[in-house]
Amino acid sequence: MIPLNYILFLSTALFFIGMYGLFTRRNMITMLMSVELILNSVNINFIAFNKYLYPEKLEGLFFSLFIIAIAAAEAAVAIAIIINLYRNIRSIDVEAADDMKF
Amino acid sequence: MISRNYLSTALIPGLPFLGFVILGLFGRKYIKRFSGGTAAILVFLSTAMALLTAWDYFSGVGPTDTNSHPIDVGDITWLPLGSNLSVHMNFLLDSLSLMMIVVVTVISLMVHLFSIGYMKGEARNPAYYAFLGLFTFSMLGLVMSSDLLQMYIFWELVGCSSYLLIGFYYDRPTAVAAAKKAFIVTRFADLGLLIGILILCYQARTGEYHKPTLDIRELVYVLTHTTPSGLFLGFPLISWGLLLVFMGGAGKSALFPLHIWLPDAMEGPTPVSALIHAATMVVAGVFLVARLYPLYAEATDVSRIIEYAGAISALLAAIIACTQTDIKRVLAYSTMSQIGYMMFALGTAPDTNWQGYTAALFHLFTHAFFKALLFLCAGVIIHFVHSNEMKDMGGMRKMLPLAHVCFLVACLAIAGIPPFAGFFSKEEILLAAWNSSKLIYAIALFTSGLTAFYMFRLYFSIFWNKPATGHRHKLPFVMSRPLIILALGTVFVGFIPFSRLMVYAQYPDADPHESIGLNAIPPVLIALLGIAIAARLYYKENDRPAKWAQSIRGVYTLAYRKFYIDELYLFVTKKIIFNLMGRPAAWIDRHIVDGFMNGLAIATARISATIKGIQSGKVQDYAWFFFIGIAGLAVLFIYIVT
Amino acid sequence: MNLSLLVIAPLITVLAVLFARGKNAVRWLSLAGVMVQLILSFILLALYWRERAAGNPAPMLFQYLHPWFSSLGINYHVGVDGISVSMILLTAFVMVSAVLVSWQISPNAKEFFILLLLLSAGAYGYFISLDLFTLFFFLEVSVIPKFLLIGIWGSGRKEYAALKLALMLMAGSALVFIGLLGVYYHTRGLYTFDWPAIAQLGVPIRYERVFFPFLFTGFGIFTALFPFHTWVPDGHSSAPTAASMFLAGISMKLGGYGCLRIAVSLMPGSALIYSPIIITLATIGIIYGAFATMMQKDLKYINAYSSVSHCGFILLGIGMGTATAVNGAILQIISHGLMTALFFAAIGMIYDRTHTRLVEKLGGLLKVMPFIATVFVIAGLCSLGLPGLSGFVAEMTVFFGSWQRPGGTYHLATILACASIVVTAVYILGATGQVIMGPLKESQYNSLTDASWNEKMTGILLVAAILVIGTAPFWLTELINK
């Protein structure tokens, strides 16, 4: 079996790549993709811990199914928001939506 | 006795006050032309009451007579100032106050009558008579006070009435400025009076009752029967108190160096000058020192100062008066000079037992008559010539014969020629000076010569000098009668046995009477010399005065410009007080204190401007903060707390 | 007597005015409301005298307590003693005069009168409160209306002045609040906001020393304690007349009352410790205020700086601490309140007619407006302490009380305070001479009118009050001492 660490490295790397993308990308769709990355990294974590630490239980599996579903829903809502925002500010650059500044 | 009860005594100041209230509230609309008459009637009643009370009191007086003790009538605790001190409102009737009451009411009545003619047709007459009533009330209250702070209250009211009356012709800027000057100079002196009262009042704590007191009789008794303690800069506190009280008196009485307001006060109507600035208000300082006489008799250092201040004032004023050309200004300086006489007579207290006291008060009494007479005559003259300057007058003895005779009588009195009233009082003063200090005597003698000179310079310039012209003007009844009454007074009041009557109540065995005898001769001779010089210079029109003035040019200019004292005061107030204290205070307030507060506001705004960058409006920045916060909390809770 | 009526009456008037239509209805309703307040205060005075004459020795009368947040020790507790009654009378007089003088206010008269009445409700509540929280509550009630009144109906730099005033007064309230909390937490024995109880129980000296400066400075900001007085000149000068009258007449006295009742009564030990500082600041305020006034060119600024100077007497009396000096401080609170209200009323009347407040542009007004000029002169004479008017009574009591405190430096402070009477005379007579006397400055002034009926009533009311206190002060001193 592959040691647990390797899988955790993978998920951590994915998590931080996603975070980096969330903080630095200007395109809102790309930010959404980064959020999906984060969610997927969490999924890997759940499955890994489930398989390696509690092989006879299935909670991790169920949770990751939930996360997939919620990720899909949240992506739909986020796209809806982006479309509405685009209708107002005519751009999908997140830095253009800074009306709420001081 | 009819005079010894509260009501009749209260009427004496009460009637003029009633006049003030009635004329003040209803004068302008309802009384108008009868305001003078109304006021005169009320003052007449008050004068009658005063004369009755005085007759009652003095007819029963004698050195060992218990009637000579003061009586007090009624007492109100007006303002409590602590657990054992309060201001009482009370009347004190003794020989001093009754003499003053007689002077004030009689002169006030004469002025009221004269004003009915002089101020006829003036638009603001109701206000004029209201203020006159206020003044009479305040002055009477002042002399009848039994409590130091009560006296201070009336002292200030007198100052206020004087302000209102000097500024009566309020659309003249000079009158407004003169009124302001009078009030501020006397206020400055009143500051001294107030602090002096505070010191004296609390000095009484060391006395036998162990409590502070404002009651005059009690204060005098306590402070003369104990050795008060406390030194300040090497002098006993009580001396400081008495000195400051004298400072207050000096301001009101226009002594050097607080005399600058008196000549300017001549901007007021002439009857006002007669009443206030000749006969009554300016003697308030003399009255004050006389009231506290036993204390001054014991404080030799302060009495020396009073002596010299009085003598310097007398001399200075006489010198200046020799050069002035405005008739009222000459009379103003003459008043200052005569008050200087009264003051230094009082200042001889430690050396002459009670001589100075009776001499000063006698001179006060006689001076009131002849000075008021002089001013009223001046009023008549000014009324006809429509100018105050001596050069516009001359040869008026045919035009105004009554004024001529009265003026002559008054001049003879002030020069000290027997048998007029001024002779007796001046002699007594010179006697007191002789017994005290020969230097003061010499100054006083020289000054009486100068007095004779400048008064007769005035007389000759007005009534002689130029050829007698014009036809006789007949004075109206209300203007001539007061002149006649005052002239009669000037002639006859010298014969009142003052020293027998004016005994200080608590000291009935003080015997100030010393006969004058041959001491009378030098002053009379000097006076005659002064008259002769004045006659030579002014009897006929000539250029001798001009030549004399040229020959002593420096001294003449100095005297004509009043020794530049006014300019000195102006310099001190404008350059020093305004520029060094007022302006910086305002500047500091605007720029430093206010600037600090504004600076706080600006600093807050700047900090806010710096911090508000956190609200960048960018979602990603917020996400960053979110993440950092969680990371921080996680580290905190996982590693540090547990 | 139910003291809360004093607070409810103005609030009912506010409601009535809110639903009124038309300028006349608004004005007459407001006038009726403040007249009711005046009558109530006289009734209170009479009832109070009767109770005391009957021998009631309780320190506070007519008490009423209603629990509010009893778990925190906060109750709605009201009661009066002599000092409070005199303050309530002062407020009533000034309010009636303020309403009368604002008869012609426009635009938005309704809002103006509502805000003015709210101010008075705050003042009354403040004076009757016996609970620190209630007191603070009513203190805060009055800050926002002031801001609105100055900012909307004022003149000159009104927005700046309104903001400055509101911020500085709120800073003062913040300091007061810290002090209050300190007192609450450290009262010996129990946690309560009830200040008579706190006065009895006392606070340990080491906490007193810490919290006294907060309380005193906080209340002092209201009373123009140097150097926090700078809101006074701009605030008073830019405010509309009625607001100036209320501000100078009552608002500044809220601080004095607070200093006395709260700071000094609850923490007497530290009052003694800090008294040299208080006396120094008060004396500086008196002299410095007087000198700064001499240089002012605007009538309202003259009166505002003169208020700083006169309120210094209040703080001096409180700082000196002797019974007479404190009596003098209370007398000065009442006397100055009436006097400055009168002065601002006169200045306001002049400004309404000539549209200028600069002294150099005015002159000779005695000829055209004799009533207003006389009122102006009387107010000025009261300011400089002429006997017969209330200012003299108050100042003398403060001077004598201050002299009673032994020690050379205290005597020096008293002498300096006395010296201010000369400076006051200089600027008052300067202003009077220029504005009232002298020749008529501009020919168009010839067409100016004298006071209208409402302005005459204002003048007569305040002058009568000043004269009564000035000529017969004994009833007032007795009232205060009971």
Structure in words:
The complex is a heterotrimer of chains A (102), B (642) and C (482). By secondary structure, chain A is mainly α. Helices cover 76% and strands 0% of the residues of chain A. Chain A has a single domain (4-89), classed as Orthogonal Bundle (Helix Hairpins), CATH 1.10.287.3510. Chain A is elongated, with a radius of gyration of 17 Å. Chain B is 71% helix and 3% strand. Chain B has helices at residues 6-31, 35-58, 95-118, 125-143, 148-166, 173-203, 216-224, 237-252, 261-264, 270-279, 284-291, 293-298, 300-321, 327-347, 349-352, 355-385, 401-415, 421-436, 438-463, 477-492, 498-501, 521-538, 544-551, 553-560, 565-611, 619-641; strands at residues 71-80, 86-93, 231-232, 235-236. In chain B, the strands form 2 sheets. In chain B, strands 1-2 form a two-stranded antiparallel sheet. Chain B has a two-stranded antiparallel ribbon with strand order 3-4. In chain B, a hairpin with a 2-residue loop joins strand 3 (231-232) and strand 4 (235-236). Chain B starts with 5 loop residues before the first helix and ends with a helix. Chain C has a domain at 275-482. Chain C has 20 helices and 2 strands. The chains are: A mainly alpha (102), B mainly alpha (642), C mainly alpha (482). Chains in contact: A-B, B-C. At the B-C interface, strand 1, helix 5, helix 6 and helix 25 of B face helix 7, helix 12, helix 14, helix 17 and helix 18 of C.
